[in-house]
Amino acid sequence: MSSFQPQRKVRVAVFGSFYRGFHVLSEMLKGPLARQVEVVGVATDDVSSTFVSRERRVWSYPHTKTEEVMVEQLAVAHHIPLYKGRVKTEEFYDIYENEWCPDVCISATFGQRISSRLFLYPEMGFYNLHPCIDDGWPSHYAGPNPFHALLENKSDHAVIAMHEVDDGFDTGRLIAISEKIYFPPDASVIDLHKSSSPLAAKFFAQELGKLLALCEIDYAME
User: Fold this and answer.
1) What's the pTM value of the predicted model, to 2 decimals?
2) Nearest residue to 109 (alpha-carbon basis) of 37, 172, 211, 200
3) Strand residue runs (E) in 48-203
4) Using CB atoms within 10 A as the burial measure, which of 73, 184, 188, 204 is most buried?
């Protein structure tokens, strides 16, 4: 049985950047679950750093300064603790375990690998949102730039996979698959990030809502 107590808000940490990070954070702050969750910390990409694998991720494409910092600005506007450094450091572990103390974490376009010390901590799990197609799991489209791979293979759609984070690269246990998102003609990687992110955020909120309901059932049975 879970020891989570539904009388208090669920503590959520968001690891995210760009449009997916922005929409997931917005959904946690303003969507239907806002009364049930508290965002206790946000880790986001420092695009000027060398540790976010910029050359292999969305930051390698033309983008604006606003797109680099919109997650940071949203967190600051809502007075949420923000972290932009390396997450596999004793400094961050101390913040994560002694200040944020998350019940659940979500990764949504984040440029650093998550260590086992981080993904094993939240009682309700640490999850990632990954674009792919429903081609079995782990997907053929695991990796840092799935939209590019999908366009290269002339796919006309994607889905968002919500999966647990583990030591592999997009290999953790599959939780759910979203509905299909169809690609318009001549769509770019940036276009697909923009168009899919609101659906990805609402999909995560829907699945988190199911998880909260299960926790309430477990607590009632104790």
Assistant:
1) 0.93
2) 200
3) 82-83, 104-108, 126-132, 157-164, 174-177, 181-182
4) 204
